[in-house]
Amino acid sequence: MLDIKNYLGGSPRTLNEINISVVLDRIRTGDNVSRSSLSKELNLSLPSISRIVNTLIKKKYVIEEGVGKSSGGKRPIILRFNGDRSYVIGIGIDIDFIEVMLSDLSGNEKKTIYETFPKEKKPKEMIDTIIKYINKIIKETEVDAGKIEAVALGLPAMQDTQTGLIKLCPTIPDWEGINLCEILSKKIKKDILIDNVANLSLLGEVWKGVAKGFKDVVLVAIGTGIGAGILLNGQLYRGFNGSAGEIGYMFIDKNVNKNTYVPFGQFEYLASNTALRRNNIKIEFNGKSDYNINDLIENKIKRARVLQILDNLAFGISNLIAVLNPELVIIRGALFFHSDYCFNYLRNKVETLVPLTTKLVRSTLKEKDVALGAVKLALNHLDGKILSPFFWKRDS
C-alpha cells in the first residue's frame, strides 16, 4: 500500500479519488497551503487542483482561511483543513472506571472525563453508563451531537473479528458473547468501533507517546489481568480472529494448578494486580496508592512478595521478546508509575533472562493512553471514508 506522504499526484488520467486524497492530506498536514502551491508540489494543473479544492470546500473538509504573502503575483488564498467539521469520541472502560475523550477531526483533544465508580457497576448497567457519559461530554463541550461521527471503545476483552461478538471478558462477564457494537449502534446511531484496551493503549503510544516512530513494539498492560498490544512492521497484529495479545493465558510455572486461577490465565494470576491483591498489596491506577512505596520496599515480607511477582512478569516478558524480537517493550501498570525501584528491578531481570537488545520503557501517556488510542482508531475509521482505499491503512 503506497504511502500518501510519498505520492506526487500524476496525470489527468490518475484516478480522481486518489488525487483528492493526496490534496486533502497535503492541506491537513501542511502550512500556508494554497491552490498554486498544491499545483506546483503535486504536478497537477491549477484547474484540476481548483476543482478538487472546491469539492473539498463544498464537503466542508477544507476552508479558506485568508490571503497569504505574494511572491510577485496575486496574493494566494490559504487553505486549512476543517478539524471542526466533525468529532469522534474515544472511551476506555472497565467495571470500576470510565474515561471519555472528545476530539476533533484533526485529533485535537477538546475534553476528557475520567471517573471511578464508588462501587463496581453491574454489567447490565455498563451500556447505560457508556451512553450517559457520551451525552455528558457532548453537553459539557457544547458540540453539536450531529457532528459526532464515530465512537471507539477500549474494553478489557476481545472482539471476535469474524462474528463481532465479545469474548474473553472476565471482569464484565455478562458481556461475553454479545454484539456490543450492534447494541450501541442502535442506541446512539453512530459508527461504533471496539478493540482491546492493550491494542488501543499501544495505538495511543504510537500516535502521541513513547512508541512514536517505532515499527515493532509490544505493550504489556498490567491491571486486573495482563494483555499485550503487538505492533509488527507498523501495523497492529490481531491474529486470525482478533485474539492476538491474550498473553495472560501463557504458562510460566508448571507447578501451579490450572484450576486455581479460573477465569484468569496463569500468567496474569501470577504477575498482575490480582496477584498483588492476593498478597494484600493494593494498587490504584489513577490516584494515590494505599501505601507509601518506600515503606513497601522496606518491609521485607511484602518486598519479597512483590519481587516474586516481578520475577513472574519478567519470565513472560522475556518469552515475548524472544519470540517477537521487538525494538521496544512498553510497560503499562500502576505499580510501575508509582515506583522506579519496581521498574528498574523488572528491566534488570529481563536483561538477565534474554540476550537481545530490546529497550524496556514505561508508558508515557499513563491513564490517557486507551482513550487516545480509541480516538485514533475512530479517526482512522473516518480516514477510511475520506481517503481512497489506495492509501488508507487501518491502524497506522
Write a short abstract of this structure:
By secondary structure, the chain is an alpha/beta fold. It contains 13 helices and 15 strands.
Task: Give an account of the 3D structure.
The protein has helices spanning 16-29, 35-42, 46-58, 126-141, 180-188, 197-208, 266-271, 273-278, 293-298, 300-324, 334-338, 340-353, 369-386, and strands at residues 33-34, 62-67, 77-81, 87-94, 97-104, 109-116, 148-155, 158-159, 166-167, 191-196, 217-222, 226-232, 235-236, 328-332, 359-362. With 396 residues, it is α/β, with parallel strands linked by helices. The protein is built from 13 helices and 15 strands. 38% of the residues lie in helices and 20% in strands. The termini are close together. The strands form 4 sheets. A 5-stranded mixed sheet has the order 6-5-4-7-10. It has a 5-stranded mixed sheet with strand order 13-12-11-14-15, sandwiched between helices. The chain has a 3-stranded antiparallel sheet with strand order 1-3-2. The radius of gyration is 24 Å and the shape is globular. The protein has 3 domains: 4-81, Arc Repressor Mutant, subunit A (Orthogonal Bundle); 85-201 and 369-386, Nucleotidyltransferase, domain 5 (2-Layer Sandwich); 210-364, 2-Layer Sandwich (Nucleotidyltransferase, domain 5), CATH 3.30.420.40.
